[in-house]
């Protein structure tokens, strides 16, 4: 059974080859699964204000077009939102923590929430909006999951807002997950970024995908740990964090969000030799 632990850190481009010698092979297909916020882009006060660097955008387009590289984005954002953020056609996108998946050819897999959960979700949105959407806090409604942001709330009130949002979410049977100065409400279903990652890999490469391809996953959030846990032993995953003592299911910690660019550069160099 996988367990969280403190893992080796990677802080530069040179670290990838020195700590993962020979893992990548330009002749072996690679499935590259990536989170968006906090991974491909630095976190912002408002999700609408995130911006890919020019080099990151260039690397992603290069890798998306490589015949040996399969690129997929698995984000907490709504599907159309993350698609518009990246703007790359023909790749797989998963939104709402994998509840919505659309492959490059337009094939969809949507986790259909029961009517009762949809009703409860609507009630959560209403209560959070009426009771807590003030003083800089706001609700990001993604239709099947939401994020309650309290980054702009005065520091002496932030904990109150966090606890109050968590209580409302959990009172209706939804899961309240802590994010970066935010609380995410997810439906109580057996589906997450990890399950979405496995489905994407199976659909693209078949049941024996683990024997035939290399897999890399990178994410920065607690919701990404589900993918790191399920991919342990079948691929290499990276947790983006500045905390040297963070416990994670990932194989390595990336010392900062900027090191993700080094990760993509390492992959690009390998597959374009």
Automatic annotation (TrEMBL):
It comes from the Eukaryota. The keyword Hydrolase applies. Keywords: Hydrolase. Its EC number is 3.1.3.12. NCBIfam families: HAD-SF-IIB, T6PP. Belongs to the trehalose phosphatase family. This is Trehalose 6-phosphate phosphatase. It comes from Bactrocera dorsalis (Oriental fruit fly). The gene is LOC105228751.
């Amino acid at each position: 059974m996988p367990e969280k632990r403190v893992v080796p850190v990677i802080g530069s481009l040179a670290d990838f080859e020195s700590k993962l010698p020979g893992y990548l092979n330009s002749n072996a297909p690679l499935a590259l699964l990536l989170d968006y916020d906090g991974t491909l882009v630095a976190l912002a006060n408002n999700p609408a204000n995130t911006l890919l660097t020019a080099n990151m955008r260039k690397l992603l387009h290069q890798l998306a077009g490589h015949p040996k590289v399969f690129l997929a984005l698995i984000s907490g954002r709504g599907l159309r939102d993350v698609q518009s953020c990246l703007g790359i056609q023909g790749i797989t996108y998963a939104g709402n923590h994998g509840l919505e998946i659309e492959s490059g050819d337009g094939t969809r897999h949507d986790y259909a929430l029961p009517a009762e959960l949809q009703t409860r979700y609507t009630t959560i949105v209403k209560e959070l909006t009426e009771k807590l959407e003030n003083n800089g806090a706001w609700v990001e409604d993604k239709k099947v999951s939401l994020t309650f942001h309290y980054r702009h709330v005065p520091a002496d009130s932030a904990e109150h807002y966090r606890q109050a949002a968590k209580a409302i979410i959990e009172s209706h049977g939804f899961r309240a997950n802590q994010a970066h100065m935010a609380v995410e409400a997810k439906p109580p279903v057996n589906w997450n970024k990890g399950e979405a990652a496995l489905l994407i890999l199976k659909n693209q490469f078949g049941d024996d995908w683990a024997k035939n391809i290399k897999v890399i996953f990178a994410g920065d959030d607690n919701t990404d740990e589900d993918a790191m846990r399920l991919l342990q032993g079948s691929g290499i995953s990276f947790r983006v964090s500045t905390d040297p003592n963070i416990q994670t299911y990932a194989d390595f910690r990336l010392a900062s969000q900027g090191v993700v660019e080094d990760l993509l550069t390492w992959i690009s160099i390998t597959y374009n030799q």
